[in-house]
Amino acid sequence: MKLEQILCQWMEADPLRMRALHIAADLDLPDWCIAAGFVRNLVWDKLHGFARPTPLADIDLIYFDPFQVGPVRDRELEAHLATVDPSLPWSVHNQARMHERNGDPQYTGTLDAMCHWVEMETAVGVRLNARHEVEVLSAFGLESLFAKKLTPNPRRRRMAEFCARLNRKNWLWTWPELQVEAMPQSG
User: I need a labelling partner for 183 at 20 to 30 A (CA). Which of 34, 116, 152, 167 fits?
Assistant: First the structure.
């Protein structure tokens, strides 16, 4: 079975994640997905054999709308989502403006934005397609995520940022089988 199929099965078997995906799909945002720890933590939990999922610090709903780039829209969406399900810790960010915060060239879409995230294994998202099936978006593939690796993004080349996140997020303590990879050589 392909890694993408396994990930979709794990998502579909997780009631909290499916509830979040259906709520997000109802917003009908352009080029959206729920990414980062929402996906990454599920995979690492499963691979570590955890009986219960690791609590989510937030649910990163990202989308790409070049016509409404201000942060006000994101706050409005978060407020709306909090009324739909106050138990879910939503964090909403339009990727059409995130290049400014990150000092990158302008992004062309959600997947392009994910190509600039700090770790390769975090740059994975899921969404529901028109048939309400789970669909995977991955900037770097799923192999290293399923291999329990933590790899700095070769496009960013900012090791201090990678190391700071590694320490702040306590990933190696939470998932002790993870292996930190060296900076991959870029093209």
Answer: 34
